[in-house]
Amino acid sequence: MIRSELIQKIADENPHLYQRDVERIVNTIFEEITNAMARGDRVELRGFGAFSVKKRDARLGRNPRTGEAVQVDEKHVPFFKTGKLLRDRLNGK
């Protein structure tokens, strides 16, 4: 599902809301999750999962084309851990 499909589904299930308002709500939620992660905070949605940021240390990598050693800088990557409810539902429990 992509963002526009999510917005359309929520708008269809809530006919009392305008689609532009639903779009603003969805965008605000995503922005807040992104902003919290940019600050290094953890975002937990009970029953769904938790978003966090993990740090990857600098390391020596290899260019796959030439085999030459390349310095890879330290970076921060997003990480998602599913909640128990979501995991159980995916596994048919």
Automatic annotation (TrEMBL):
<dbReference type="GO" id="GO:0003677">
    <property type="term" value="F:DNA binding"/>
</dbReference>
<dbReference type="GO" id="GO:0006355">
    <property type="term" value="P:regulation of DNA-templated transcription"/>
</dbReference>
<comment type="subunit">
    <text>Heterodimer of an alpha and a beta chain.</text>
</comment>
<dbReference type="GO" id="GO:0006310">
    <property type="term" value="P:DNA recombination"/>
</dbReference>
<keyword id="KW-0238">DNA-binding</keyword>
<keyword id="KW-0804">Transcription</keyword>
<comment type="function">
    <text>This protein is one of the two subunits of integration host factor, a specific DNA-binding protein that functions in genetic recombination as well as in transcriptional and translational control.</text>
</comment>
<dbReference type="GO" id="GO:0005829">
    <property type="term" value="C:cytosol"/>
</dbReference>
<dbReference type="GO" id="GO:0030527">
    <property type="term" value="F:structural constituent of chromatin"/>
</dbReference>
<dbReference type="InterPro" id="IPR000119">
    <property type="entry name" value="Hist_DNA-bd"/>
</dbReference>
<dbReference type="InterPro" id="IPR005685">
    <property type="entry name" value="IHF_beta"/>
</dbReference>
<keyword id="KW-0810">Translation regulation</keyword>
<dbReference type="GO" id="GO:0005694">
    <property type="term" value="C:chromosome"/>
</dbReference>
<dbReference type="GO" id="GO:0006417">
    <property type="term" value="P:regulation of translation"/>
</dbReference>
<keyword id="KW-0233">DNA recombination</keyword>
<protein>
    <recommendedName>
        <fullName>Integration host factor subunit beta</fullName>
    </recommendedName>
</protein>
<dbReference type="InterPro" id="IPR010992">
    <property type="entry name" value="IHF-like_DNA-bd_dom_sf"/>
</dbReference>
<dbReference type="Pfam" id="PF00216">
    <property type="entry name" value="Bac_DNA_binding"/>
</dbReference>
<comment type="similarity">
    <text>Belongs to the bacterial histone-like protein family.</text>
</comment>
<keyword id="KW-0805">Transcription regulation</keyword>
<dbReference type="InterPro" id="IPR020816">
    <property type="entry name" value="Histone-like_DNA-bd_CS"/>
</dbReference>
